[in-house]
Amino acid sequence: MKLNKQVNKMTGExxxxxxxxxxxxxxxxxxxxxxxxYAIFGTxxxxxDSKFIVPGESEVxxxxxGIAHYLEHKMFDQPDGSxxxxxxxxxxxxxxxxxxxxxxAYLFSATANIKENLAALLDxxxxxxxxxxxxxxxxxxxxxxxxxYDDNGGWQVFFDFLSCLYHNNPxxxxxxxxxxxxxxxxxxxxxxxxNTFYNLSNMAIVVVGNVDPDEILATIEAGIKKNEPFEExxxxxxxxxxxxxxxxxxxxxxxxxQPLFMLGFKDNDTGYGGERLLKKSIEMSILLKMLFGxxxxxxxxxxEEGLISASFAPDYTMQPSYAFSxxxxxxxxxxxxxxxxxxxxxxxxxxxxxxxxxNRIKKVVWGNYIRTQNDVEEYATTFMQLKFMDxxxxxxxxxxxxxxxxxxxxxxxxxFRKELSALSVVNPV
Amino acid sequence: MINKQINENISLCYIPMxxxxxxxxxxxxxxxxxxxxxxxxxxxxYVLKSGCRKCxxxxxxxxxxxxxxxxxxxxxxxxxxxxxxxxFDAETISDKYAPQGEKLVSELLSLMMSVLFEPNIxxxxxxxxxxxxxxxxxxxxxxxxxxxKRVYASVRCTExxxxxxxxxxxxxxxxxxVDAVTPETLxxxxxxxxTSSAVNIFICGDxxxxxxxxxxxxxxxxxxxxxxxxxKTELFKKDGKVNSVTEKMNVTQGKLSIGFRTGxxxxxxxxPALCVFNSVFGAGTHSxxxxxxxxxxxxxxxxxxxxxxxxxxxxxxxxIEFKNFQTAYDETLRQLxxxxxxxxxxxxxxxxIIDITNTYEECYDDQRSLQSFYLGELLxxxxxxxxxxxxxxxxxxxxxxxxxxxKVELDTVYFLTGEDA
Lengths: 429, 421
Prior knowledge:
The structure holds two protein chains of two kinds.
Chain A: E1 4-8, E2 13-19, E3 25-30, E4 37-43, E5 51-53, E6 61-62, H1 67-74, H2 84-90, E7 94-99, E8 104-110, H3 114-125, H4 132-150, H5 153-165, H6 179-182, H7 187-197, E9 203-209, H8 213-223, E10 235-236, E11 249-254, E12 260-266, H9 274-292, H10 297-304, E13 312-319, E14 322-330, H11 334-351, H12 355-372, H13 376-387, H14 396-400, H15 405-415, E15 421-428
Parallel strand pairs in A: 3-9, 11-15
Antiparallel strand pairs in A: 1-2, 2-3, 4-8, 4-9, 5-6, 5-10, 7-8, 12-14, 12-15, 13-14
Helix pairs in contact in A: 1-7, 3-8, 9-12, 9-15
Chain B: E1 2-5, E2 10-16, E3 22-32, H1 38-48, H2 58-67, E4 72-80, E5 83-93, H3 104-117, E6 121-122, E7 125-126, H4 128-144, H5 149-161, H6 175-179, H7 183-195, E8 199-205, H8 209-220, E9 243-249, E10 254-261, H9 271-282, H10 288-296, E11 303-308, E12 313-320, H11 325-340, H12 346-363, H13 367-380, H14 386-394, H15 398-405, E13 409-418
Parallel strand pairs in B: 2-8, 9-13
Antiparallel strand pairs in B: 1-2, 3-5, 3-8, 4-5, 6-7, 10-12, 10-13, 11-12
Helix pairs in contact in B: 1-4, 3-8, 9-12, 9-15, 10-11, 12-14
């Protein structure tokens, strides 16, 4: 196959891309002079995908929560009994994997032997091997992973926040599931999920670094084991989600030094990906920094009153099927922070947004885009995540340049609604 | 790499790295860990970055940085051996990527110099409101160490090991120490240390080093300095029996932290062997701890070891069920014995060497890592470059790994457990 070559004049970057006949999306971004390279092989399949219809079947399949993550762990067992990490170690690759709400990804970084590492990556992710014994063995390890998160205040405050926003959306569930839910996972169920979501037509591979694109492409083509793309889509079934939030407030107690909080707004303007979603996310990034960034009036007030410290992080999370804004931090009085934020929203609604701030922050957003291209890992990971939302990160500027002050004002009116806001708190024991 | 000595205390090191799209500036102010000033040092960088002559307050600094396409300026404290380092980290996209040809690197450097050398001190005192706000934040940072139990256990283990010595002090100081600081005493402390501490400035990325040197001199040439050295670290040594500490907290997972004395300084010939030994033992998916404590016995999601290079300390960390304390402890010690008894496979040795080599190689793509590498060489007093270290690691033999493992001695066993466990 032949890849399509694009050059971005503003960033100096080159992208080679194409879709293999197996359905696999291939993206290569060569970085001259870099020592390291990074490859990520991922599937559009995450913790939210527990209910689906396999292409060609008519019945709905429902599997235990936490299975996508469990499957990720079990991919490291090989049919010949070998250890995946050993293969990478041999070629100096540093291998890892992660599961998020909407994707599972397998990756490595290396400073040499990129071809050999890449072949190993392709090989193991296409070689599922699950037995009742090997599935059983993982219960202990993942059980400890879940326990680790039980004690993690930042993690707990995040999931409680999601439980505030969502009635039914599975994004509110723990990615690893629960000790109870994972006890129902079997080898058979793992195969079923694997055969559905790890079809190459549901996957993509991104390679960033000091690589020869022809060599990379040849390695990928040689490594493809199965050329049977689905002809129809995998139908993912999500429960209906009302527009309202589930509850406005949640709290719990953990061993933390001072209260942790997360507050934010549910975004009901969802159901699309692509350029429209990218544009929305740029508008939201600008807005959040204008309203709550370090130069904002409200940040100054909160900081000087000793209500927040440096840890005050506004963020916007988006997927085609859900989205929300959030601010995470520590405070002796989270309820007061929440109240001040809501008052600030009302003040801005009356007085309007500051156009000077818009112009400054729009520059910041551009700087941040440039910055993400420094690091092979950050760039590859972001690229894949956005590709799965049908967003072209390479030509970000084409969308960025269209964002106006008017757009941001409209977005403000649509997004920041008190009745869609919530607060989650983790208090010290 | 270009080195410029600005004066007896301040040196500038420029490391070109134009393949990246950013330029990073790091300023490191060295102070010997000392209970009499540790808390003032912990507070000072944050007060300094709250305002200066160029930008009078935090809001002005924030806007200034935003206009530089979201450049960053951060402060932090670092502890390396017995050195408490006040660290300022700044980053901007390089001038080449400034859409309107702005001189971003110069603008950022001059802000940093103003923060360092032109603080808002009036009548011998910092602004009282700012000092009070930052005292609260400094105490919050001290208290927040407990939030991440993995880090907390490791810090507690080290404290217990080195009780009574300077190294037991936290880089963040103490709550009592912070309470005692006043706007006047902090100003006095600033005036004392700014002229009498070793300061390293690193610029990594794409800059004109002569221009940078001139920009720094514009701030420093009118000040008189008293010569100072980077603090020296003494290797941690102790005799006597193993110290065991159990602490209870409201947690669901136990955190095991085991401290060892390595007896090896970074200047020693067997330092590269120590690095390889640590990798074989517990640093990575090829290591004995990962493959036995995690994979074979399913006791933990993480089980790993790490070195404190300057002090000669190694800490093992694992998150486990309360009831598995003894099993995890025994297995950790058993794996160390395995190495001491010569049970190191070729594969373990090779994987470790490759893994460490990779980490060194990756510094070439990361401005902060490269700064940190060269800073480390200054602290260790070794002055090697990355290629030298790669070669030294590659030359390590199995026998050397075994020999250095035999120097490693158990010192302290710390366990964070549940209240009802």
